[in-house]
Write a structure and sequence with these properties.
This protein is of the alpha/beta class. It has a single domain, classed as Rossmann fold. Helix content is 47%, strand content 14%. The protein contains nine helices and eight strands. Strands 2-3-1-4-7-8 form a six-stranded parallel β-sheet. Strand 5 and strand 6 form a beta hairpin. Helix 2 packs across helix 3 and helix 4 packs parallel to helix 5. The relative contact order is 0.17. Bound molecules: BIS(adenosine)-5'-pentaphosphate and magnesium ion (MG). The site of magnesium ion has 4 residues, from helix 1.
Length: 223
């Protein structure tokens, strides 16, 4: 099974994607994480991607598709996976279908209003060493500003600056939101409310995935 997580920046794709990975044993493939790793390692792809990411725009489809192709070739993705942040354009959705046509697909759109996502991104912090994600309001570290696991000082993502967040939201509406209609037309779209707690969001997703796995998962809203 291929679970495709859709939703604006800050809607909780990474957070619930991690939970799905642990509960269902499906590896989470997050193009944002793969790209940030390539940027940090200063690979040729990372160097090209950095300029787009720093401005809050999308990295060109061919670069992202190449990263996903390489990741899907790893043995752990054969039995299914959770996609977080991919596809982000209709062209990427077509590439995905061509790359791995065998998987049964489920698309889950995590809906969250703009005020909520802006607040979450302002207060998101991450550990530069282990990449654990915190939130100063909803998931604070045990001690001020340091990672619970390795005591590294937490940082903010460069693209969580308020002006870049606004740009990312515009790009989401223009280029990624059309995927909601695309997956609705394929009959595999499910929508969940993402403005509540993490547990509330995951409970809706669990209902959907359990129904799909039981073979009764028609397109629906889990609310
Ligand atoms: P990416 O890293 O994918 O960023 P994004 O889609 O903008 O999403 P975020 O990671 O910001 O948010 P999220 O939904 O994962 O929320 P999270 O769970 O962290 O992409 C970054 C960049 O890479 C893009 O701008 C682009 O340049 C490039 N890129 C990536 N993929 C690409 C592609 N396919 N094509 C082209 N370019 C691509 O939660 C946010 C915060 O809120 C956290 O602090 C969390 O703890 C907290 N939180 C989460 N859920 C809740 C909740 N229910 N209640 C309270 N707090 C919550
Ligand atoms: Mg994320």
């Amino acid at each position: 099974m291929r679970v495709i997580l859709l939703g604006p920046p800050g809607s909780g794709k990474g957070t619930v994607g991690d939970i799905i990975e642990h509960v269902y044993g499906l590896p989470r493939i997050a193009t944002g994480d793969l790209l940030r790793r390539a940027v940090q390692a200063q690979t040729p792809l990372g160097r090209r991607a950095a300029a787009f990411m720093g401005r809050g725009g999308l990295v060109p489809d061919d670069l992202v598709v190449a990263l996903v192709r390489e990741r899907l070739d790893a043995g752990d993705a054969q039995g299914g996976y959770v996609l977080d942040g991919f596809p982000r354009t209709i062209a990427q959705a077509h590439s995905l279908e061509a790359l791995d046509p065998r998987q049964r697909e489920v698309a889950i759109d995590i809906e969250a209003d703009e005020a909520t996502v802006v607040r979450r991104l302002e207060t998101r912090r991450l550990c530069p060493r282990c990449t654990a994600v915190y939130n100063l309001r909803s998931r604070p570290p045990r001690r001020d500003d340091v990672c619970d696991d390795d005591e590294e000082k937490l940082i903010q993502r460069d693209d969580d600056r308020p002006d870049i967040v606004q740009k990312r939201l515009r790009v989401y509406h223009q280029q990624t939101e059309p995927l909601i209609g695309y997956y609705r037309a394929k009959g595999i779209l499910h929508r969940v409310a993402g403005s509540g707690t993490v547990d509330e969001t995951f409970a809706q997703i669990r209902l959907i995935l359990d129904r799909v796995l039981a073979g009764t998962g028609k397109e629906q809203t889990a609310r």
